[in-house]
């Protein structure tokens, strides 16, 4: 990862504006802890904007040559298995000069155990 | 928290069985790291079983006198704001001798930042 790397936090999206704002704040906070990445943005699969495709385009416009998409989902349902990969594949096809990488979804992160214990 | 405390990991639920299995495994793994809690179980708001109400009842049957419900959701949409609290309130009303406590939802946990960084 270098300074031309962008990170997209790809969440589900909600009809409730405050819920989407929460994801946006999360992405902003994440940005402050990732010095190697100069562009961090939230994106939504549905019900909110920007879409994942738009966020990827925004990252490219901002100068990113490598874009990492993190599926911000707790379990690998249809959205993680099919929908998000399909969007990323389409964006990759349209932007062959950019390296777009999809990580595993949040649910596999070992850090979630500590995250839950924090709430107790 | 003592040995008569139960913990319910209350997730959304998916049509995809593997997704629900993932939540069940998460709850099992969590159980091994929480020695003060002798009952840890997954539960689902919809599309999978056990329901949150059934999981609470199972915890009571298992001898829990205090039950902690963690909304395993990343953002406070309708499910976190209305649906899960309504179920917990109903269960509390039906079981006044049990102390049922609803925590904040997973999305507010500071540990999520580290959980995302782990995926990069």
Walk me through what this model shows.
Two copies of one chain form a homodimer. With 120 residues, the first copy, chain A, is of the alpha/beta class. Helix content of chain A is 42%, strand content 19%. Chain A has four helices and four strands; from the N terminus they run βαβαβαβα. Chain A has a four-stranded parallel beta sheet with strand order 2-1-3-4, sandwiched between helices. In chain A, helix 1 links the parallel strand 1 and strand 2. In chain A, helix 2 runs parallel beside helix 3 (78-94). The mean pLDDT of chain A is 95. The interface between A and B is large, with 46 and 46 residues.
Q: Biggest β-sheet of chain A, characterized?
A: 4 strands, parallel
Give unreliable regions of chain A as ranges: none
Pattern of helices and strands of chain A? EHEHEHEH
Structural class given helices, strands, pairing of chain A?
Answer: alpha/beta
Number of strands of chain A: 4
Per DSSP, the total helix count of chain A is 4
Distance between the termini of chain A: 35 Å
Provide a short characterization of the protein structure.
The structure is a homodimer of 120-residue chains. Chain A has 120 residues and is an alpha/beta fold.
Helices, strands, pairings?
The structure is a homodimer of 120-residue chains.
Chain A: E1 5-11, H1 17-32, E2 39-44, H2 52-61, E3 66-71, H3 78-94, E4 99-102, H4 111-117
List keywords for this structure.
homodimer; 120 residues; alpha/beta; four-stranded parallel beta sheet; 4 strands; 42% helix; 19% strand
